[in-house]
């Protein structure tokens, strides 16, 4: 039986929490479950029965409910920052994500699944721009370093982290009004 990082991580974090009395570590993992599920495909377990439940709360005042407006466009500033922090935790996860193919109908090139770490960055931009189709695909294109995916992804993560510090200083709506792009200055762009 093959053990995956995804199945070991919660146990590892629980152990850390017990060692260091870090109940906040476990709380952070729980808070991130929804956001991680947006980019990490579910494990397929055909024998598991489907259980219907009440709407799931992802924060103190935001419920997952049916709405004509997508959840990512209804986040408060604090919820958006929490979601982005959760998504940035996925750096280094090179497994296939649940985001496959083009993200807009005007993109004619075909794409396989992006990695989880790239899909997480794409979703950060989705949250910021409030637009699923802000780019043609969840694929990064590096201008300076063609072919070395790890260097391109590392540059994109460094740019996102720098951008997030600036956005937290300016405030969410000011940063959106100024159209601060998470990839500015990185030599990387979305397809």
Description:
This protein has 191 residues and is mainly α. The protein has a two-stranded antiparallel sheet. The protein has a two-stranded antiparallel ribbon with strand order 3-4. Helices cover 45% and strands 7% of the residues. The protein is built from 6 helices and 4 strands; from the N terminus they run αααββαβααβ. It has one domain.
Write out key terms for the chains shown.
mainly alpha; two-stranded antiparallel sheet; 6 helices; about 190 residues; 4 strands
Would you summarize the structure shown here?
By secondary structure, the protein is mainly alpha-helical.
**Radius of gyration of CA atoms, rounded to a whole number:** 17 Å
**Uncertain stretches:** 1-26, 44-66
Number of strands: 4
How do the strands of the widest beta sheet line up side by side? 1-2
How is the biggest beta sheet arranged?
2 strands, antiparallel
User: Residue-averaged pLDDT, rounded?
Assistant: 76
Distance between the termini: 38 Å
Outline, from the CA principal axes?
globular
Please tally the helical runs, counting DSSP H or I stretches of 4 or more residues. Answer: 6
Q: Structural class of the helix and strand makeup?
A: mainly alpha
**Total count of domains:** 1
Helix content: 40-55%
